Amino acid sequence: MVIVKVSIVGPVASGKTTIAYQLSVEKNVKMTGIDELVWIRQKSKPDIRRSHQQRIENIDIATAESQWIIEGTQVRLILESDLIEKSDYVFILKPNRMVVYYRILKRFLSQTIGLDKRNIYKPKLSELKNYYRWANKFYDNEFEMLYKMIPRSKTTILTGRNAQKNMVLIREIINK
């Protein structure tokens, strides 16, 4: 059995959750979204952001397991914690920016008209703007920051836009 400790990082709508979920099912390993570690979700009220210390502690708890898959976009938190050091593999998703823009709009529209059942509320236009702003922040600043700080020996950058093709590459790397 291959021990799996995987971090998947990328901009919003890059396919992180899709890939993490598929890998989680294939390897029978728990998947955690960093959003779960950052936010206290509330159905009828706005989410509450945990303190910085709580976020770091939650990452420590999630990575204390013998196997795990963690995905997220919060680059500064990822770099400030020891998540990368504890990872056996780090996959950075970086599809073409226009692909991400399209996916953001598609997700927003499907949530707005109720086709996307993952969300329990209709998103606001301000959230759409935030998604684009966060995507730009990743492409303009955070990718370079990640690239400089993560050891090349454990990092793979995936620029493809197709989750299935990315999964083939990830399987090859993990199953070496």
From TrEMBL:
Transmembrane segments: none annotated. It comes from the Bacteria. PANTHER family: DNA TOPOLOGY MODULATION PROTEIN FLAR-RELATED PROTEIN (PTHR37816:SF2), YALI0E33011P (PTHR37816). This is DNA topology modulation protein FlaR. It comes from Pediococcus argentinicus. The lineage of its organism: Bacteria, Bacillati, Bacillota, Bacilli, Lactobacillales.
